[in-house]
Amino acid sequence: MAIQEKVQKVSLKTLHYAVMTSETTEEHGEVKTLTMPIELTLTPNFSEGTFDAGDRVVANEVQLDTITIAGQVADLPTEVQSDWYGHQLSDDKGLIMNSNDEPNYLAVGFESGSKLVWLYKAKFKPSEESNATKKKGETAFKQSGFTGEAIPLEDGTLKYTVRTDDPGVTETATTFFATVKKPTVTPTP
Q: How far apart, in Å, are the Cα atoms of 163 and each of 40, 124, 169?
């Protein structure tokens, strides 16, 4: 059977997130959207082991453990920094960074080309921040970076991807990112 291959466009359109409101029930709050993502890199991390016997390898195991996330966005508004990094907001809406702050678990979703993706349990930390004086006649833009790790949910689910250009797919970005969409699988009788 020949499998239909397609050329994939790389286009990071939106970045979505929702704060995990309960680790016990693995529920998430309201989905919020950042409209100016610049880049997002996902790197899978594996545990591997081999079993040697009779002077050769007789078994090999590979297991997906986590996914490392690194990204850049045009801006990380104060509310987003509070949601992501667990910082408190002052009465006048300033951001209070405290050494006791604990980042929140987040569901992170993004639309890239025809792919719609959710990662369900990630924690982020900010990347280096640089500030510089602008030189005469120069225009400069600032980007906000972040890194983190996505870990599996209790049932082992780590990431869910839907390709809208696959045959029979009716999912759209609007419906996929309205809530934190988890996969459904009908058992085979």
A: 18, 26, 7
Q: Is it the case that residue 4 has pLDDT exceeding 90?
A: no
Taking the C-alpha atoms of residue 80 and residue 86, their distance in angstroms, rounded to an integer, is 10
pTM score, whole prediction: 0.83
Among residues 106, 118, 122, the alpha carbon closest in space to that of 177 is found at 118
Q: Could you tell me the maximum CA-CA distance found in the chain, to the nearest angstrom?
A: 71
SS3 85: helix
Q: Of 42, 34, 38, nearest to 14 (Cα)?
A: 34
Per residue in 110-146, pLDDT (tens digit) is: 999 899 999 999 999 877 666 567 777 776 666 788 9
Quickly tell me which residue has 């004086």 as its tokens: 133
Place of tokens 């951001």: 95
Which structure tokens are listed for 151?
């870990």
Residue 145 is predicted with a pLDDT of 87
Core vs surface per residue 76-114: b (16+ CB within 10 A) or e: beeebbbbbbbbeeeeeeeeeeeeeeebbbbbbbbbbbb
